[in-house]
Design goal:
mainly alpha
């Protein structure tokens, strides 16, 4: 606990940025679940991470494109 308090004192934006990132990943996962319906696979969702560092808007575009691709081949 003490290490966390010290870390947040030195980098006060760290906790906020972590939470914003967490909320955004949960939003994107919910989007993927809605688009994929019964075919949603969390492992395939996590493949988005393989694209490396990118804005969340790019990750969202990838999720939407993959969903459209799956629906067009089904």
């Amino acid at each position: 606990m003490r290490c966390e308090v010290e870390r947040y004192c030195v980098t006060p934006g760290q906790a906020c940025s972590y939470k914003v990132g967490q909320i955004e990943w949960l939003r994107l996962r919910a989007l993927a679940q809605r688009l994929g319906s019964a075919k949603f696979d969390v492992r395939k969702f996590h493949e988005v991470i393989r694209f490396g560092r990118a804005p969340f808007s790019v990750a969202e575009e990838v999720i939407i494109a993959r969903s459209a691709q799956r629906h067009s081949t089904a």
